[in-house]
Amino acid sequence: MTENMFGVDVAKAWIDSFGPSGRERVLTQDLAAYAARVAQVQGRVVFEATGGLEAPLRRALAQEGVAAYRVNPARARAFARSTGRLAKTDRVDAMVLREMGLRLDLPICPPEPEELSEIRQLRVRRHQLVQDRTREVVRGQQAEGAFAKASIARVLALLEAEIAAIEVEIAAKSRRVQRRGRGSNCCAARLG
Question: Which of 80, 103, 126 is the last residue of a domain?
């Protein structure tokens, strides 16, 4: 079965897959068909953690029962350098990931439970709002007119309320996940 290893470099609109028969570019909307083809040959897939871009691929693979291995991008880069591959392109990355899967004993990464996916997305949204709040604070320090200062104060109040609401939702979802004990080592590390 090891020859049916696929290395996948994930981008926003497509993936580059390198498998036993070479390279293939697959559009994101075609991931279900790709996963079905990999399942048909009893393949396994190695991909990098990409801050969430890999989530649709993971879901498609899980629906087809395909074993998935998610690796840290720094580890993949170090592996590439150790094999003499200094170039970094989608094709090279996919080849390197396949080779990692063939040579290393990687832990399987089970599909991420929906609750953990939602928490991750909420954390990303909170981070975005915190950045927006920081920018508004700087604008407030630079503003001179009364109307501009009042506008900034209103936006800051809205941002504070949204951040607080998201924090409450994250806490509630986290408690539910902990009560159910549904976290996995692969996914829990992404939430920490």
Answer: 103
Which residues does 95 contact at the CB level (< 8 Å), separation at least 6? 7, 18, 23, 85
Bridge partners (DSSP) of residue 25 are: 16
Q: Give me the residue label for tokens 């981070």.
A: 127
Same domain, 9 and 87: yes
Helix (H, G, I), strand (E, B) or coil at 42: coil
Domain with 36, as residue range(s), is: 2-103
Distance CA 192, CA 172 (A): 16
pLDDT at 1 over 70: no
Q: What is the pLDDT of residues 97-121, one digit of tens each?
A: 999 999 998 888 877 777 888 898 8
- 65 and 125 part of one domain: no
